[in-house]
Fold these 4 entries.
Entry 1:
Amino acid sequence: EVVTAYAEYYYLGAALRTTRENRTLLEGWEAILRGRYAAGQVTYSNLIQVQVELGRMDDQIITLERQQEPSAARLRTLMDLHPDTALPWPDRLPEPGTLESRETLLANLEAGNAELKVLDAMADRETRRLEVARKESFPNFMVGMEWTPMGKGAAEHQTGKDQWMAMIGIEVPIWTGKRSAARREAVAMREAVLDRKADMSNMLRESLDMAVFRYDDSRRKVSLYRDSLIPKGQQSLEASFAAFESGKGDFLSVLDAQRSLLEFSLLMDRASADLVQARAAIDLLTGQARVWSE
């Protein structure tokens, strides 16, 4: 849970930083538009449009800022830190590493999952109870030897030598009904635990498949936004602003391009955090202790 909370805290900080950077850009545009509006070069609607966009960003920034303390408090609790410990925004996420094959992940799930280990221990206990119940239904054979030392005071008919006596006994269970009930109960308990384990294993496999999907999908999105959409969004913004500067485009196109670029940047931040959280979920399900590195 620490890694999951850390990744969420990182996302809040990254989203806040990205939104503030875009607001700074808009502030510069507003100053330019004010000057041009005073000179009669742009319409009042252009100035209002950028001011409305600034108001929307201010709302987003306030929401993100107010989420910092609850998110930091959760992280401090999970890390067993003092409530007054200051937690700066993380500047990077830990590296999630390369995902193992599905066969390896499933094998790790069966061998390392904590919930399955508990059910395995319960099944072993019921198996031992069943073995005990079965043994109690069998006759109990006893074999022994008894040694009797003979001294000088032995009777006339005795040889005076030490005597050995062999003993053989058999104990036959008579309460067969009670023992049969104990066997049936032990079998039922063991089968119930095995059924629970089978159900739990299926549920955990489904959870693992979903976590793997989230991992693959998040990695795909990070690559898409980082390598394609964000660079293209930046080019679109620059082209739209150049067209506006030359009088060949309107300012609404500039705002649309800027809004798209902001959205792509925030979605990449979200996908980056989701990628780490998915990896943490996979490790938890498979019982793998990972040393996270930046």
Entry 2:
Amino acid sequence: IAQKIISRKLGRASATPGEIVVLSPDVVMTGSNTAVMVVRTLNEIGASAPWDPARIVMVLDHSSPAESVLTANAHRLLRDFCATHGITLYGEAEGICHDLMLARGHVAPGMFVVGQDSHTPMYGGIGAFGFGVDTPEMGFVWAIGRTWVRVPASVRIQLDGAMAPGVYAKDVILSVIGRLGAGGCNYRAAEFAGTALAGLTVAERLAICNMCVEMGAKAAFFPSDEITGAFCRRTGVEEAAWVTPDPGATYEREISVDLSMLEPVAARPHRVDDVVVVRQLTDIRIHQGFIGSC
């Protein structure tokens, strides 16, 4: 799927893993206070305005609401900048960046999306190529509308069976990470397949793709299907370039996971791949739980 999306963007029949290519993103997501540094980068390199404001989305979610005068002033600068240049802005109370990008129809299957957040591979839950970049690189993306990427090799993760009650998508991806290791998919595309996909909602697919970066993945994908299509119709995405792997596609590595055999798991400090079943942690007292912003 990664090779297909890149080759389509290049206007070529194919793209080879390891090849370095330069592409223009379909949409760019920038957020948090580090967006101020993106604006500064734009000014430092002499760009008078972003290359295409219609393809930039700004989300103020990471330090929200502002916890200091410094953050409040940064938010004000970003609001003013977006208003001046006609950039779509979502304020502090509107939601988490990746959820907003999907729910508001900014991302569609087959798109090439660059985000200023490491969990941008989440967009692969609907079949888009999403990956994160750091602040200086995002500044240049804003200025020239292009970025480079090395075409990733793909790892196929076959999901079969059905999750038992009390087992969730988070348990699936943590189990995969525990098996492959924190660097087990480094600069690879994690591609999910199997009979279990028909029973996974878009929300579950997004949760799985979101965490693939924790095993080093450049991008992650679920193939487009009717579940994807139904989600896109709800979010107002009318033209979606569905992407599925070719029959007989080859992969660098393949693993299989039987979801019916999974139990609730947790990653112990301080490694995301130190994954154990929760029933082994009955002597661990929980001091604090957190549900909040990205």
Entry 3:
Amino acid sequence: SGNAASCEVTVLPTVLTLNKTATTIYVDANETLTATTTPDGATVQWTSDMPSVASVTSAGVVTGVAVGTAHITATIPGGGTATCTVTIIPTVASVTTPPSANTLTYTGAAQALVGAGTAQYGTMQYGIGTESTPPGSYNGSIPTGTNAGDYYVWYYAKGNGGFADSAADKVLVTIDKAAGSISYGVTEMTKTVGDANFTNSLTKTGDGTVSYALVNSGSNASINRTTGEVTIGTAAGSATVTATVADGTNYTYSTTTATYTINILATPTPGANVTPDNWSSGGDVDVTPDKNGL
């Protein structure tokens, strides 16, 4: 009797650990953090120091609210804590349907270069740049072009709210040249040595540049190569005028030449009985004196 026994008991603190000490989450996305306690069974409480950036539920589900950084802390009774640093980054908008190049031919008016694209989590933006250089600015309007040529339409999805912009891309659009034409309404005419300078009216559709030339003219005639004005020479004969057109900025020509013929007659001798045959041939003429012997 009177004997006693004792036992010294040491109570160890509960250990708390998290599966992650740092993580990254997109805006509007979520991730579940896992807390482990030793021994098991301790109640874990969750808090966020920046709920406007990242919120957390009682089960440790963290949701990205806005771009930034927050610290999610797990706490157990007795004061044990563990913290995870959460970085919230923007969700990237995407182009779901790229803009499509329109099939275009020059009309003289501005034309929409592409059909509109579509975006997820953003708004489509467009601009005209070069093959290697994006435009200096974008907007939500479909770009237009007037002159024939190649256009590089750049586009991207501008993120809505907390969403990041997508990467920019481009599409090549070509406005083809329109079909031009060139023709003379009068393709043959008769002139006489000594007639005044003249220009035969040329009908031209489009912006091509025209040059003129005379073929087989000899001394019969000469031409202004720029204006097409013809100067009649000193001898009878014939000549062919050729107008040649080169493609312009907005027009192309499948037929590039138009021609007409000039028949040049000799100047008749005053009082002479001139027939069409000997006049046009430039040969001798028969002269019949009138009653006064002239």
Entry 4:
Amino acid sequence: LTVPPPSDHRKDSQRPADDAPSVVTAPPEQIETPKESEPVREPEPSLAPTPPAIDPGPPKETTMPFVPNLPTVVIVGADKGGVGKTTLSRVILDYFGAQGLATRAFDTESPKGSLKRFFPSITEVVNLRDSDDQVNVFDTIGTSAITLIDIRAGLLTDTLTLLTEIGFLDMVKDGKVNTAVMHVIGSTMDSFGEIEATSKLLAGAKHCIVLNRNNGAEFFKGSDDVARQALSLGSSIIDVPMLDPRAMEHVDAASVPFGEFEKDPKFSFVMRGKVRHWEKQVFAQLDAADFNIH
């Protein structure tokens, strides 16, 4: 018998099978050494076009201080309620009272009135739609150094029209009486529109636009350009800061003027301090607007 030579298993295992897929080995990928990158330059921001300057119109004829020894009439009003005009009236009465000036007030929230609750001895409730009450208010201007009129919501424009018709604003132009209109506004577009209408009626008088932060309004939100243009029509701006709501509640419950509350030791020491600090801030605003008669 002829014995076949032994097979080389190592060679057989290394020999690819006829039906095995061939493997193609790719050449190694050439990796380039990264070059030193240049610093990234941020794109320069594009500048927004400068908005056109707001034209506030002709300057007011009387933005000067009040003239001593003339009767002074301060009208506090708004064409909507809830903007804090009575709060402002209370501070203004304290302001002139602190100067030692004789003051009187008319509350046009007839028949009850809200200002009278805090100043009962110097406040009279009137109806300015009634001719007899109009006589009671404007025929007696010379009897007191300071006359404050707290106008019912919605009656400001009507009241100013009346003052034009009876010649009262002509007296202001002639320098016979000091007059300031405190126009308390909200943050609505209607409020901004009212400023222009009011301003046209007040040539010769102080037209102070009042932002009362105690009414929670956001005066410029979403309408900055319109608001600022409207505010530029006033002779000055009074920006009343917010009083701590709890302090406001304490004064309201006491039914006394802010100035009396802050001095009376029977009330909370903390609340009196808050009211005192707040009222000093408002007084400074009034000083800046030339309300100090001395």
